[in-house]
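Recap quiz, item 2
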Amino acid sequence: RKEVEQDPGPFNVPEGATVAFNCTYSNSASQSFFWYRQDCRKEPKLLMSVYSSGNEDGRFTAQLNRASQYISLLIRDSKLSDSATYLCVVNRASGSARQLTFGSGTQLTVLP
Amino acid sequence: EPEVTQTPSHQVTQMGQEVILRCVPISNHLYFYWYRQILGQKVEFLVSFYNNEISEKSEIFDDQFSVERPDGSNFTLKIRSTKLEDSAMYFCASTSNSNQPQHFGDGTRLSIL
């Protein structure tokens, strides 16, 4: 089983649509969770951290279910600029420096 | 906003040659990382560095690879004898706290011919 598994995508949605991405992780000892976005041939950029209580940042809402080892990202009122690959990222519990483990990403294209 | 900087942006090298990729992490950060991303694949962890030593390394980070923090600002990745399969984007990242998000540089595209 992959350490971090995401919806394969791609997702093609019209502007203004709501879109949801799902992610599961296999290491139950993982402690920190993030969504990053990556534009074509660019570096991953932090979108938001994910907390157990759920958190929202504008049009973006992230949820974490530790019991199910499941993470989600909801994007409301999607914009053309939201087109990117969304990476589910988990902070491995081993080692002091806590490496990040990335999912393969879900590609989103928002269409005009 | 402070950022991680990487040089060069693109490096083209003959197979078997040595390359050094350079990174300047955010100044007050304590944890440093190298990741790579082969075209079309996911981002993969290579190595982490803390307190002037390697904290963890992946299976990818074999004897051909080394890291160094030669002064208070630079963090380098050296590949001693490059192979074709080393062609990838190499990202440097840093963070102040190992549980916090890591901030990535914009990467070095390494092309091995």
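The longest strand of chain B covers residues 88-95.
The mean pLDDT of chain B is 94.
End of item.
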